[in-house]
Amino acid sequence: MDILKQMQTLDLFQGLPAEKLKALSEHARYRTYKAGEMFLGELDPAHAFYVIVTGQVKLYKSSPEGREQTLNLLRPGDPFGMCTAFAIDSFPANAMALEDSSLLLIPGTVMEAVAMQEPRLLVNIIQVLSDRLRESMILIESLSLKELPQRLASFLLHAQRMEGAQANQLELTVTQRELAKILGATPEALSRGIRKMSNAGLLAVDGRSIRILDREALSELAEGE
How many Å apart are CA 170 and CA 218, to the nearest integer? Predict the structure, then answer.
């Protein structure tokens, strides 16, 4: 693939001078991963900046007992690994491709050198970090302060806003099993929660397709009312 041409389409690199973008592209590597492949583990040494080109990747933590908590779902254009590129030596989470995916890897030293010369790149990175921090705060609040029905309602409303979905229709990009890991629940508990909300007339569910039937009631549930 033409790495430079691909990088020109990514929001992360918008505003960079052509020569700086070319310098980054010359050091970038293109990698592909199969669905279900964990290609980076927590505590693995990592000194690269990653950007998703195609597919979907999840970042997650796992306990010694095998429990998982999904931290982020990343899609084309999303970068990650900023902490290992600039600050720490090991990756703080696991990274797995949820579907066949391709990524660009840029050495951390190269990103740092360009960022020191181009404030625009630093501003773009700060914007990404700010968005991730906000998402992390929402996740922490949801897991620690809300019950499962509230967490599910909040997730669905947030996902629809992010997708810009029309007519109260939402297509999940993950299975219900993966959704349970995001919400910090068992698949069985999530299934019961969805069924209860469907019976209450809040949702209509068909596989990964979810139609919001009563947005006001769903919003009240998300707020704990």
Answer: 14
